[in-house]
Amino acid sequence: MGRSPCCSKVGLNRGAWTAAEDKTLTDYIKFHGEGRWRNLPKRAGELSQTFVCVFQLFFCFLFEGDVGSFIIAGNDFGGVGLQRCGKSCRLRWLNYLRPDIKRGNISLDEEELIIRLHKLLGNRWSLIAGRLPGRTDNEIKNYWNTTLGKRVNYQKNLTSTCKQSNHPTKKDPKKTEPHHKNESNAVVRTKARRCSRAYFNPQQHKTEPTERIPRPGTVLTKDSSISNPVELTDPSSFMMEANMGQFCLTEILMNFEFSDIFDTCNKSDLSPSSKVPIIFPDEMLENWTEGDYVQPNMGCNHHLFASITDSEGDWLAE
DNA sequence: AACGCGACCAACCGCTCATTA
DNA sequence: TTAATGAGCGGTTGGTCGCGT
């Protein structure tokens, strides 16, 4: 069964937002906060109508006359609220109206950070945006698609041209060609998973609960790839809420030169099991590959790797 | 001035995941 | 357990603008 559409598209505005719509949405969210997007347009309309009524009463009280028609003609509420899909409202707020959004050009530092994070995370724009305060995933995605991506590809082409000229020996293209046509751009493609809990095995790891770095054997998601988390540990005896954005593995790893790591890891003469960044100890890798945590068709253990960076917050003992 | 073209970016769309009843 | 719903994500589209011819 397919899911119902987020709203009826009939009679809704589409395309660019007007200043009046922005104001209505902003006023509503300032009043009620974010969330419940599906019902927001209707509720925003009710709020607008409430404002109209209050203003009318106020001015009637002040001037002892009926100025309601003046107010309705002069404001932008119109008494009909937002003729927008809730999803559209959410997008408008998150990408444009939020007060903490940073305007202006992306700095060189931000550029460098985006490139490094993209190399690490692939097209996971929301995660990348999470490391760039004030920037939205949409903005970064656009910036990548229009500017950075082209530049990076250009530089890679230059590099590969140089390498070819330095190493003129011909190789069998079937052996050297990556499986994926874009694998030369080798980004770590992961399946996005939200991570709200982690199951921690105290027998294997006798670290303090406040340990911020997950240890080998820590299953970081309870997603579908984990067939039976109870087999791995006992969540009731030792389950931790993992809120790992604050933990920020990315920050730690930002100091690494990932191109070197992933170039090594993607060398075609390595077996899939050995295509793993050297920064992870063997013990950790064994634990990853023994269980169901890692999808077997993946060359690297980036499934778990990305899960570490998936959610926000900190480790908390339950 | 008119036109074509590419770059940029806001907005849309379809999908997946998490939560809830 | 399952279906419905809410929310979020990434890919894509289409309008606008600036620049070159």
Would you mind describing this structure in some detail?
45% of the residues lie in helices and 2% in strands. The chain is mainly α and 318 residues long. It has helices spanning 19-32, 40-63, 68-74, 86-97, 108-121, 125-130, 137-166, 173-176, 229-232, 249-253, 258-265, 282-290, 302-308, and strands at 198-199, 239-241, 316-317. It binds a DNA duplex (21 and 21 nucleotides) through helix 4 and helix 7. One of its GO terms (molecular function) is DNA binding.
List keywords for this structure.
elongated; DNA-binding; nucleus; 3-stranded antiparallel beta sheet; mainly alpha; disordered C terminus; 318 residues; transcription; Homeodomain-like_sf; 3 domains; Arc Repressor Mutant, subunit A; 13 helices
